[in-house]
Structure to design on (129 residues):
């Protein structure tokens, strides 16, 4: 019975930790820090500075399942949509929580610098810009 219980506990732990952001490789830099299947937002140009990443939607970066600690104080300067080509592979991002006040859209495989003049608070995977 102990073996079965330990296996169930480990499965439960894996499910519980799934929403967490992925750690980047210690040698990765710039956009290459962004894991496959995720969208990554950066506080600096060209994928530099602090990074927050998600594989799903987030209605509130400050209070959601994955929190982007720097997003309240720093503006987003760059993005990389390292998602997987599929139906929902484009990312729309918003100034407000709950997908309000749309400010941009990035298709799968694209990276680049943004104006860097606004704070992003939520994003959603969609079918196209």
């Amino acid at each position: 019975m102990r073996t079965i219980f330990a296996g169930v506990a480990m499965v439960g732990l894996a499910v519980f930790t799934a929403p967490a952001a992925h750690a980047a490789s210690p040698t990765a830099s710039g956009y290459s820090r962004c894991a496959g299947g995720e969208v990554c937002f950066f506080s600096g140009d060209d994928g530099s500075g602090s990074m927050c990443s998600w594989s799903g939607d987030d209605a509130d970066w400050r209070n959601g399942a994955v929190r982007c600690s720097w997003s309240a104080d720093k503006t987003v300067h760059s993005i990389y949509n390292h998602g997987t080509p599929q139906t929902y592979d484009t990312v729309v991002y918003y100034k407000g929580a709950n997908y309000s006040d749309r400010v941009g859209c990035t298709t799968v495989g694209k990276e680049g610098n943004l104006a860097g003049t606004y704070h992003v608070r939520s994003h959603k995977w969609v079918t196209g810009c």
About this structure: The chain has a mean pLDDT of 84. The longest helix spans residues 2-17. The radius of gyration is 16 Å. The helical segments are 2-17.
